[in-house]
Amino acid sequence: MEQLLKIENLCKTFTIHSLRKHISASKNINISLNKGEFIGITGRSGSGKSTILKCIYRTYLANEGNIWYNSKKFGLVDILSISERQMIYLRKYEMGYVSQFLNSMPRTIARDLVEHSVLEMGFSKEYASKEADKILEHFELDRELWDSYPNNFSGGEKLRLNIAMAMVKHPRLLLLDEPTASLDNYSKERVKELLNQLKSEGTTMIGIFHDIDFMDGVCDREYNMEAGELI
Q1: Burial class (CB in 10 A: 0-12, 13-18, 19+), 133
Q2: Is the pLDDT of residue 102 over 80?
Q3: Are 191 and 26 contacting, i.e. CB atoms less than 8 angstroms apart?
Q4: Can you give the residue ranges of the ABC transporter domain (predicted)?
Q5: Which of 24, 149, 156, 184 is 20 to 30 A from 111 in CA distance terms?
Q6: For residue 144, what is the domain's CATH number?
Q7: Count of alpha carbons within 13 Å of 215, Cβ hemisphere only?
Q8: How many other C-beta atoms can be found within 10 angstroms of the C-beta atom of residue 126?
């Protein structure tokens, strides 16, 4: 099978200058992922799970190791050493990231946010509008909210919108940081349906979960994280 991602000896530390102290968030992380695989990571809060995803997405710069990614455009690259322009391209066209918190353009309605995710991939306005409607309907976001600003949404509605914005792009690599944190059981099932669909299309995924039951039937492999290390 085609290998899409390989993390080798990844280490990330943070420095608290006021205390003159170094904190190890993640250390000796080694993960290999083939195209279409889905791995889940569990662990206590503060164990370093999110740090791995942020290093892959390069919102954190790792201190040591390599993150090899088989890009459709650039070929095999080390995310730790590619240019900012290349990384921006990967985030825009090849990677998706879902966090617990909605990070959206201000004064932009929900429907436009989802459409924008498709438009920036180079698709037409007509196609973007169609795909936005389809995924918003899938997550059963009230139609009255489609033309509303997300700051009026509940926590669960914001999370569903966040997931929709990432999934509508059908990325090659999807990073999920607690994607079901504030969702009810019915909404979780809708998320699971789309994850299985993306997986069948070849999307590779890494997800962080507290809900271990959610991982059943979705993840190919499961890891547990303790004190910055994968078990």
Answers
A1: middle
A2: no
A3: no
A4: 5-231
A5: 184
A6: 3.40.50.300
A7: 21
A8: 8
Residues whose CB is less than 8 angstroms from the CB of residue 131 and which lie 6 or more positions away in sequence, other chains included: 114, 115, 118, 123, 168
Name 9's bridge partners.
Answer: none
pLDDT over 70, % of the chain: 95
* Backbone phi and psi for residue 154, each to the nearest 5 degrees, phi listed first: -75, 170
What digits encode the pLDDT tens for the residues 130-147?
999 999 988 888 888 899
Query: Which residue range(s) make up the domain with 150?
Result: 3-230
Cβ–Cβ under 8 Å, residues 140 and 89: no
Q: What is the DSSP letter of 182?
A: T
d(CA 8, CA 132): 37
Whether the CB-CB separation of 200 and 35 falls below 8 Å is answered with no
Query: Per-residue pLDDT for 59 more than 90?
Result: yes
Asked if residues 92 and 120 have their Cβ atoms less than 8 Å apart, the reply is: yes
Q: Does the pLDDT of residue 149 top 80, yes or no?
A: yes
Domains contained in the chain, number: 1
By C-alpha distance, which of 40, 15, 10, 44 is closest to 26? 10
Two tokens at 134? Answer: 């389809």
Tokens for 46, please give them.
């503060």
pTM: 0.87
Residue 228 confidence class, pLDDT cut points 50, 70, 90: low
Handedness of CA 148, 153, 144, 121 (dihedral sign): positive
State pLDDT tens for residues 166-193.
Answer: 888 889 999 998 877 777 888 888 888 8
What whole-number distance in Å separates Cα of residue 106 and Cα of residue 151? 9
